[in-house]
Amino acid sequence: MSTTLPAMLMLVVGLSTLALAMLRRVQSGRSPVVLTYGDDAEGFAGKLFRVIVAALVIHLLAVAMLPASVDAALGRIPALDTPLLHAGGLALMTVGGGLTMLSQWAMRHSWKIGIPEKQDTPLVTNGLYAFSRNPIYVGMVTALIGTVLAVPNVVSVALALSAWISISYQIRMEETHLARAFGDAYDAYRRRVRRWV
Length: 197
Description:
This protein has seven helices and no strands. The protein is an all-alpha fold.
């Protein structure tokens, strides 16, 4: 397996997210990135998200540029170190990254990174959101599982577990916000569609 493929897949998803953020900023005149920096729970989640994403990018770039030395230092996991699992990991990264990008674009003007102070866009419940309340996060978790298989070392596992905890916490904060913003409409949606799949 090429050690550069995981980093390239991450780059594609990152560039797609950046392009969408820039497009939404041009369309609305304000940034869709509304992560806070405060000392509250939301601020902590935003800081944690930034740290995990930065660490994942650095990790995948290090593995791509210095594979032998990085693998030795980062605790390669022999039980997961097979060509079949590497290929499966790349497939999961591709599917997860694709789902993440499609889900972001499907939200149209309602897409944000973080929780807005004021909810001024409609609740999206159709398309991918008719099957999962959080298809973006389903895609992210799928890609993270793929990362563990494609780059099977202790750091990949630690980052995937940290991201899982962060995402689970973020979802609960977002659900509280959406319940306040949309009331009965969100309650009906929540009863009809599962959190994950």
